[in-house]
Amino acid sequence: MMETVNLFLFVVEAIAYFVLMVTLLHFRHRLGLGVFLTALGVMHFMETYLAAVFYVSLPFGDVSPGSSVFFSGKLMMILMLYLQEDAATVRQPIYGLFLGNLLTVGIAWVLQVHQPLQMSTGHTPDVDFLKEMGWLMVWGTALLYVDSLGIILLYEKLGEFFRRRVVLRFLISGFVLLTFDQIGFFAALHYFLDVPIAAFWGGWKAKMLAVCLYAAMFAVYEYRIRRIGAAGSARSISDVFGDLTFRERYNDLLERTGRDMLTGVYDRTRMEMEAPLMLLEALKQGSFATVLIIDADHFKDVNDGYGHLQGDEVLKAIAARLGTTLRSNDRVFRFGGEEFVAVCPGTDHEEGLLLAERLRWTIATSVKTPDDRPVTVSIGVATADEDGVDFTAVLTAADGRLYAAKKSGRNCVVGRSGVVKLS
Q1: Which chain regions cross the lipid bilayer (predicted)?
Q2: Which of 73, 79, 276, 310 has its Cα between 20 and 30 A from that of 218?
Q3: Is residue 342 a contact partner of residue 291, using CB atoms and an 8 Å limit?
């Protein structure tokens, strides 16, 4: 009966930990990433202490919630942090924990020089315990560093075989690295604290169960929450500190940096910085990203026939139609002259073709020269990862299809299978 109760509590603890930490991660743009990282770090002492001395009986063995629930959860949170940020962000909590634990050991050695007073009966300072826990935490953090590198590299490697099955990659990565961690950390527990070998298998089984629970909740978050609520969570809020540090002015300056002065869309320099990252993020999440190259047809005739000022007005009108037709998470860049590039994350090739055709039709029916003649565009469409896994390759494929659209008579969209629409 008690084993069943403990198992129920085990599952509740895992769910509560995941929900709390993912909430902090999801709203990191509002709360600040430091809130998530601090919450991730402050549990480290408790995890190590529980792994050393606190065990409960489950139907499959004796386990410590500190190791099986909370440390396992921390490693899976680090993988989720990598998926939503990058490796440079992931290293911050790991380095911080490692240095903090070394500091704990150092302070414990220094404290031995003191002659402490006993201020209350039964509460004698235990410096040896502090040193012992400090070394365990140092060893645990060193393992965490290796675990974090390993789980990220394995997740990426599995992408070669299961690119769009992010949950399966998440699950397998957790199984493999937490098995490695169980071997490494249990060796220290057995050496320092003489924890019996029998606890190894119970702890391993508990970690595998925890990975299954975290993977199931990750699937719910990934497909039901994050993709629906990403736009809302990305908006920052201001507070008194933001006002005092001119945050709004800074954000406004950042937003205006990299803008094309004529059309108001982002310029080529901004494209070269942001577009590769947008494709990388989409592929990392197991999704697609489609790139459109839009070129105004016979634009030289517009400049020659009506003057460059009228040509500028045509480019502004095209940019305006792109802005109103594309989705909120798409980005438009002026590639040069009369060419624009649209990057559409989370959009497969068929969706990209439909979007491009809607753009072509919208411009052809609403943008006109001064004598009321329609302005048309030709569009080339390419999609990652089917046309390449980096932005340069996908852009090159889209550019080749734009050239094919020009050869096909203009005012059309060309994708992987050829012309989509010819007027």
Answers
A1: 6-27, 34-57, 63-82, 94-113, 133-155, 167-193, 199-221
A2: 276
A3: yes
Q: 3-state SS string over 97-109? A: HHHHHHHHHHHHH
- For the 251-422 domain, the top CATH level (class) is alpha beta
pLDDT at 289: 95
Whether 313 and 307 have beta carbons less than 8 Å apart is answered as no
Whose CA is closest to 203, among 213, 195, 214?
195
Q: In whole angstroms, give the CA distance from residue 138 to residue 115.
A: 26
342-361: average pLDDT = 95
Contact 356, 264 (CB under 8 A): no
Q: Is 51 exposed, middle or buried (0-12, 13-18, 19+ CB in 10 A)?
A: buried
User: Which pTM does this prediction carry?
Assistant: 0.55
- Asked if omega into 385 is within 30° of 0 (cis), the reply is yes
Please compute the mean of the pLDDT values over residues 142-155 and round it to a whole number. Answer: 86
Please check whether residue 236 is in contact with residue 30, taking contact to mean a CB–CB distance below 8 angstroms: yes
3-state secondary structure at position 122: coil
Give the Cα separation of 346 and 286 in Å (integer): 9
Domain boundaries, the chain: 2-113+123-233, 251-422
Could you tell me which residues come within 8 angstroms of residue 266 by beta carbon, excluding any fewer than 6 positions away? 258, 259, 260, 274, 331, 332, 333, 334
**In this structure, what is the dihedral angle of CA atoms 235, 238, 244, 249, given to the nearest 10 degrees?**
40
For position 189, what pLDDT does the model report? 77
**pLDDT averaged over every residue in the chain:** 85
**DSSP code for 266:** B
